[in-house]
Amino acid sequence: MGSAFLCAALGIVPTVRHADYIGSWLELLREDNRAIFRAASAATKAADWLLARRACPELGRGAEAQAAQADGRIAA
Predict the structure, then answer these.
(1) pLDDT at residue 38, rounded to an integer
(2) How many CA atoms lie within 13 A of 6 on its CB side?
(3) Are 39 and 33 in contact, with CB atoms under 8 Å apart?
(4) Contact 52, 67 (CB under 8 A)
(5) Is residue 64 part of a domain?
(6) How buried is 47 (Cβ within 10 angstroms: 0-12 exposed, 13-18 middle, 19+ buried)?
């Protein structure tokens, strides 16, 4: 899912489809209908993290902590 978010953000048109991969998602969703929401949340966070580094490669640990504080992920 994260790769789909990144492809969309970067304008990359995916060309590979894997039936087994999709099948494993279907099986998981049959067992846990909330799994898609947890996966989407984690994928969004991962894609945002990667895209932030693409936009600002010099973003280091100090700057990352400042950004997290600024958007409310951590307390001041």
Answers:
(1) 94
(2) 16
(3) no
(4) yes
(5) yes
(6) buried
CA separation for the pair 52, 59 (Å, rounded): 8
Q: Can you tell me whether residue 32 is helix, strand or coil?
A: coil
| Sequence-distant contacts of 41-47: CB under 8 A, at least 24 apart | 42/2, 43/1, 43/2, 43/4, 43/5, 44/2, 44/5, 46/2, 47/2, 47/5, 47/6, 47/9
Q: Does 39 fall in a domain?
A: yes
* Residue 76 domain-assigned (yes or no): no
72: left (phi over 0), alpha (psi -120 to 50) or beta: left
Secondary structure (3-state) at 11:
coil
- Asked if 1 and 39 touch (Cβ cutoff 8 Å), the reply is yes
22-70 pLDDT per residue, tens: 888 889 999 998 998 999 999 999 999 988 888 776 665 555 555 665 6
Which tokens in the block code for residue 34? Answer: 């909330």
